[in-house]
């Protein structure tokens, strides 16, 4: 096979060998010469072009096949081996990217001109690396951050997070970005370099159970003990509120006890985690008086839920039940109001009142108006 020529070389040779046409006959001969050169180039390099096309198609087919096989294998093996979703997805993305990269290298080295260019680039790899590093700084930082997130796992696929004032569930972690589906069904796509520098609240990792606060204000005239009793009773009526219990182990996601955690009668350490000693006693509903406000006595009730996904909706239901119960029991939930007292009024109240002597009493008579005279005449 002859040496592969680039299209630029073909055009330059054609322009050098063929003069600019000045008549119709010369135009036809000029076009014929171009077509002849083009067909000659394709005939000489047909094998190389066919090889490149086959390599490209083969790379795409192999990458998609490997991706589908790995995904189907993970679905079958995850129930038995408790494989980590986040690590597996990152490994799958890296494998597919490696296949595409190998296909690109094969295509480059199959073209002689590009082969010599690549050798020259590898020779000056130091300078080229600096240039490429600056040009693809964001892309490389996202890739490195994605690998770090997969290794250290501050969150995993399926975890529920609060990040950048958004609450949602992690649905994917790849080499460039992380996908979070929010509570209102929006897809939040965050670059890995950004999410690695953000403060994250992970509601699922190790111990998904959560203490959820519910705050209610009552008037100063209301019975505080009765209000606390009503709040606890209404919280206990909600089916999603945890009952009092002592927990030694918690599951990564998201129930208190999982049957597969005891495979063959043995505890699987990849599933169960030891609960923090400060939170082993859970399920108790407590109400605290947190503030004596300007117009209300503020009460805060702390309720245990099995995970964050139940806490918000159940908290709204409990708050509504408390409002209805307060109305029936005569406990007022006040609205904001202010009593304005002027300083002069306070001074008058504080100053002692002096007895008034008869000489200080003055009686003033108002002049009779025309309306008064008309009324007098009418009564006569």
Task: Provide a descriptive summary of the structure in words.
- It is a single chain.
- This protein has 380 residues and is of the alpha+beta class.
- The chain has 4 domains: 7-44; 47-123; 160-202, SH3 type barrels (Roll); 210-329, 2-Layer Sandwich (Alpha-Beta Plaits), CATH 3.30.70.100.
- The protein is 50% helix and 17% strand.
- The protein contains 12 helices and 14 strands.
- Strand 9 and strand 10 (266-267) form a beta hairpin.
- It is elongated and about 120 Å long.
- The termini are far apart.
- Residues 1-8, 14-21, 253-270 and 365-380 have low confidence and may be disordered.
Helix content: 40-55%
Shape: elongated
Query: Rounded to an integer, what's the Rg over CA atoms?
Result: 40 Å
Largest sheet: 5 strands, antiparallel
The CATH first-level class of the largest domain comes to Alpha Beta
Note the run of SSEs as H and E. HHHHHHHEEEEHEEHEEEEEEEEHHH
Secondary structure layout plus pairing:
Elements: H1 7-17, H2 24-44, H3 46-81, H4 85-110, H5 112-123, H6 125-135, H7 137-152, E1 160-163, E2 166-173, E3 177-182, E4 187-191, H8 192-195, E5 201-202, E6 210-218, H9 224-237, E7 245-246, E8 249-251, E9 262-263, E10 266-267, E11 272-274, E12 281-282, E13 286-292, E14 297-305, H10 308-329, H11 343-350, H12 370-379
Antiparallel strand pairs: 1-2, 1-5, 2-3, 3-4, 6-14, 7-12, 8-11, 9-10, 13-14
Helix pairs in contact: 3-4, 9-10
């Amino acid at each position: 096979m002859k040496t592969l020529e680039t299209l630029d070389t073909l055009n330059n040779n054609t322009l050098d060998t063929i003069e600019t046409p000045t008549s119709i006959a010369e135009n036809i001969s000029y076009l014929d010469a171009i077509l002849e050169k083009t067909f000659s180039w394709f005939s000489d390099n047909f094998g190389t072009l066919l090889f490149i096309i086959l390599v490209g198609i083969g790379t795409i087919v192999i990458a998609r096949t490997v991706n589908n096989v790995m995904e189907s294998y993970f679905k079958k093996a995850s129930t038995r081996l408790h494989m980590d979703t986040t690590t597996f997805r990152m490994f799958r993305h890296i494998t597919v990217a490696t296949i595409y990269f190998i296909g690109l290298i094969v295509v480059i080295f199959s073209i002689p001109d590009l082969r010599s260019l690549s050798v020259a680039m590898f020779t000056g790899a130091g300078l080229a690396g600096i240039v490429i590093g600056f040009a693809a700084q964001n892309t490389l930082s996202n890739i490195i951050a994605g690998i770090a997130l997969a290794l250290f796992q501050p969150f995993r696929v399926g975890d529920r997070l609060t990040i950048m004032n958004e609450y949602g569930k992690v649905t994917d972690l790849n080499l460039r970005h992380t996908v979070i589906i929010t509570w209102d069904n929006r897809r939040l796509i965050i670059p890995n370099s950004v999410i690695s520098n953000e403060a994250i609240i992970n509601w699922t990792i190790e111990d998904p159970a959560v203490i959820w606060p519910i705050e209610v204000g009552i008037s100063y005239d209301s019975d505080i003990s009765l209000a606390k009793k009503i709040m606890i009773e209404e919280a206990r009526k909600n089916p999603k509120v945890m009952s009092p219990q002592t927990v030694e182990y918690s599951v990564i996601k998201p129930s208190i006890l999982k049957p597969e955690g005891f495979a063959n009668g043995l505890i699987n350490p990849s599933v169960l985690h030891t609960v923090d000693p400060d939170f082993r006693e859970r399920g108790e509903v407590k109400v605290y008086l947190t503030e004596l406000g300007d117009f209300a006595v503020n009460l805060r009730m702390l309720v245990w839920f099995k995970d964050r996904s139940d806490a918000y909706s159940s908290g709204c239901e409990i708050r509504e039940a408390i409002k209805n119960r307060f109305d029936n029991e005569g406990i007022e939930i006040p609205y904001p109001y202010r009593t304005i007292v002027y300083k002069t009024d306070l001074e008058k109240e504080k100053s002692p009142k002096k007895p008034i002597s008869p000489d200080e009493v003055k009686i003033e008579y108002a002049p009779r108006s025309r309306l008064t005279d008309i009324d007098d005449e009418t009564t006569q």
